[in-house]
Amino acid sequence: MMHQEAMDLRFSSCRGVSFEIKPHKDPFAIDATRKTWLPWDSSKRIVPASGGIITRSTSRASSHFCDLDIDDETDADNILINIEEGYELNYELSVPNPAQQLPKDPSRKIVSRPQTKPKGSRLSVILLDQGMFTVYKRLFMVCLSLNIAMLVLASTSHFSYARNHATLFSIGNLLALTLCRSESFLRVIFWLSVKVFGRSWVPLRLKTAITSLLQSVGGIHSSCGISSVAWLTYSLILTLKDRENTSNAIIGVAITILSLLCLCCLGAFPLVRHLHHNVFEITHRFTGWASLILLWVFIVLTKSYEPETKSYRKDVVSKLVKEQEFWFTIAITILIIIPWVTVRRVAVKVSAPSGHASIIKFVGGVKPGILGRISPSPLSEWHAFGIISDGKEEHMMLAGAVGDFTKSLVSNPPTHLWVRQVCSDPTKSSLTAPTT
């Protein structure tokens, strides 16, 4: 009986069928007009009565790892397959004769029927079902609106500094989006936030708001990416209008950078990112690196070019150190290089207590509650998981088998994985740096 109850609990909370408790004047009362579950019934199936204490919720089926099978692996897999194929599980129940002998280990049968409710498109799920006014999207709109406002003022000659330094604003947005994804920078921001707002006298509402902002800085990252494209387009238009004072090489490099940034933004579009995540990662990484290299070429060319003689100066270093674009690009380069300096290949032990999840163990105790990144190939893909640790000898990650990489951890457990470490000595810890 305890085994059956455990299976029922696991199924109802993790297999895509969720329930919610509704208030009732007497939670112990049984309505005789409704079908109700009783523990001694074994011949029929369970149907939550509509409008009763327990009703079917509107939440969608989840493919996350929350189902560690107890012992009936085959039956559990069949249940999951039905849910993934779009079937709803329906249970019926009738109250048996009390005189009947109670079975010691009741079994239940599952009947699946096609889902009658039409499914929405993947795009509508990604864009709409996640909420129209999330903190992420609010930050995205605020940041984008500020950039649009400054761009309009610059184009109407009401913001002369931005008009004369449009390229600087584009690079500034690139620096801001890099900071939002810099693990070292975010470590400092999170540490300061805890020190300042983690006091007992700070209102809980303010703590919650700060936490929401820190967890949604990706909205600023995305907005700055689009804004950098807009500012660079505006700078290129101004350059083409004054083509006599520039060179074809500068224009060609600028157009190439703009094309790479546009490709990077298209690859990060939600539909592409969710359906082709590996394509997104490769596009994002290599177009970003190529853009950074060409950005250095662009800065050197623009700061060394002399329109009067139509030639390039040789002593460009003395002029570069006086330009803001140079220092912004230096900061971007350092922030991008730092995580790759800490990349290490470490030994791991992978076990699979379920066909739907794996446990990855690393040597070295670390502070629990942080996030780590692992990869089978550092140039192709990285995956982030929460870290559990005893703080002494080892730490581990729990990975749900929901993608190609996480499924391979179950079917073909690796002996080594790539990680991003905090400490440079690989013998001390395999800890990866936290991020959002």
Describe the structure.
This protein has 436 residues and is an alpha+beta fold. The chain has three domains: 1-118, no CATH class; 125-341, no CATH class; 343-420, Translation factors (Elongation Factor Tu (Ef-tu), domain 3, Beta Barrel), CATH 2.40.30. The protein is 47% helix and 14% strand. The protein is built from 15 helices and 13 strands. A seven-stranded antiparallel β-sheet has the order 7-13-10-11-12-9-8. The chain has a two-stranded antiparallel ribbon with strand order 1-2. The protein has a two-stranded antiparallel sheet with strand order 3-4. Helix 4 runs parallel beside helix 9.
> What is the radius of gyration computed over CA atoms, rounded to a whole number of angstroms?
28 Å
What's the helical proportion of residues?
40-55%
Characterize the biggest β-sheet. 7 strands, antiparallel
Q: Between the first and last Cα atoms, what is the distance in angstroms?
A: 42 Å
Shape annotation? globular
SS class: alpha+beta
Q: What's the overall average pLDDT, rounded?
A: 74
What fraction strand? 5-15%
**Sheet with the most strands: spatial strand order:** 7-13-10-11-12-9-8
Assembly state (oligomeric)? single chain
User: What is the total domain count?
Assistant: 3
Number of DSSP E strands:
13
Order of helices and strands: HEEHEEHHHHHHHHHHEEHHEEEEEEHE
Number of helices: 15
Uncertain ranges:
1-102, 423-436
